[in-house]
Amino acid sequence: MNKFRTHNCSELSDKEINKNVTISGWLHRKRDHGNLLFIDLRDHYGITQCVIENKNKFFPVLEKLRPESVLKVAGKVIKRSSETENLDLKTGKIEISIESIEVLSSAKELPIPVFGEQDYPEEIRLKYRFLDLRREEMHRNMILRSNVISFIRSEMLKLGFLEYQTPILTSSSPEGARDFLVPSRLNPGKFYALPQAPQQFKQLIMVSGFDKYFQIAPCFRDEDARADRSPGEFYQLDLEMSFVEQEDVFKVVEQLMKNLFKNFSSKKILNEKFPKIPYQVSMEKYGTDKPDLRNPLIIQDLTDLFKREDIKFDIFKNMVLSGSIVRAIITKNTKDKPRSFFDNIDKWAKEQGAAGLAYFTIEKDKEIKGKGPVGKFFSEDSLKELMKNFNADIGDSVFLACGKKEDIEKILSLARTKIAEDLNIIDKDKFAFCWIVDYPMYEFDENSKKIIFSHNPFSMPQGRIEDINFNKPLDIKAYQYDIVCNGIELSSGAIRNHIPDLMYKLFSLAGYSKNQVNEKFSGMINAFSYGAPPHGGIAPGIDRIVMLLAEKENIREVTLFPMNQNAQDLMMNAPSDVDEKQLKELNIKKVVKKN
What we know:
Elements: E1 20-32, E2 36-42, E3 47-53, H1 59-64, E4 70-79, E5 94-105, H2 122-127, H3 129-132, H4 136-158, E6 162-163, E7 181-183, E8 191-193, H5 199-207, E9 212-221, E10 232-242, H6 246-264, E11 268-269, E12 276-278, H7 279-286, E13 299-301, H8 314-321, E14 325-331, H9 339-351, E15 358-364, E16 368-371, H10 380-389, E17 397-403, H11 405-423, E18 430-431, E19 433-437, E20 442-445, E21 450-453, E22 480-485, E23 488-495, H12 500-509, H13 514-520, H14 522-528, E24 535-538, H15 542-549, H16 580-585
Parallel strand pairs: 3-5, 6-9, 11-18, 12-19
Antiparallel strand pairs: 1-2, 1-4, 2-3, 4-5, 7-8, 9-10, 10-24, 13-14, 14-17, 15-16, 15-17, 19-22, 20-21, 22-23, 23-24
Helix pairs in contact: 4-15, 5-14, 13-14
């Protein structure tokens, strides 16, 4: 190839035996056998074993060299003996008999090893990310990420989309998460915002007459970190389409996701046609709008059952009389589970801040009865009604929670996952996609005591405009949708509101005046007044897609240079101080808070 290598470290095979070759890479590991020294040389492509005899003048150099030093090795390809072959390596049938080496770069003592896949503290891994990324698994994750993005681009072009780039410096938006602000030197006292998403721009692309847009878009949000969300920045497949309805968007995204996940994973897709679950149904059955459909457990509403006279569970009955609800998770054939299984679930629920979970198991001796701490409060007839109406059988167990709707949804959503994991009934060999649809346009905010947008304020309300009852905003549903896979939200999307008068009306219900709408969304509202097509789109998260395909639980495992939980880049020491000259140019004065 060039002076550094004739082959990379995965190319050599028994076809090159007796050939003189040159390879370069990192000293992965050494094995000293006295008169022979074996080294594994690693590059981006793979590993090749090399061997040197102690009489070779380069032997002392190699003997002293630290792991991860960079070498150029020249020598002859020889066949390994059958007992020393390593069929786990592409190059496992050969090795290089070293004739000469050149040290291209020597390494200091390593703060974390590259050989092996030991688990090290995250702070160390992020500070020395360049070493962490040399490890086989991390390296593989990043290659996967690159291949996924390339595949997506190819598929989107096949589907008739064109790629456009939207601005990074834009205006701040009043909706959504916190913006990252950038001071303007040429416009003192004013700020740009880094885009939380290219939302307005991609809609303006549709207004500009383009039919199908996509972009692998960087997005910036000043949010706290979570396992499935990086602080600071992330990437999404941003797409928008003109003259479409909700189903048209679904068709494109389903085709893309099926092709993508089948290409990069051997796992099966649970439902080839992604189920559509109304938001309200999802909250009732799963306690969340991000349900994991691999989990067969369903939440059921038992509130009406507790109006029976022959149920003596007075604590719950009194709460129901004051407006609380009762919901339950029924587990199939768990009569033989030890008492500790049930007690641990109850204890876990209390650790989550709930009052715990009441439970009993349905048994039949001479009669049907409930076994467990609260089983005695249920008559045989009440248990028969439960069995008839809620798909319960002898041997099943019932976990109960009572309280306010929001509290019950939260704890039973978590309990559904916890119980299923303890019972080992989640099918980990599948991808379960679904659409969550029919989101409410508005919700009532308990803190401000006002009606606010529940999702995306630029969404089109459902139904004919002339039939919408604007006097009952909480009853208005929107063409908003989320795509979820294995309990992880990959994206939100919507059919957009492209009618200025309707936009003014919808924003007014959330407390915005016409002037405020014109000020905050001047570019878009102005563009819509010159003729805008019906349009809609979505933006699946690249990081979360790769996280699922790599089977990782933390998004930092599939991100090249992530920040830590405190939004700090430990490797580059960001955020950092800047000198006074820079601040002065930007007309900014730094105020230091006193402790």
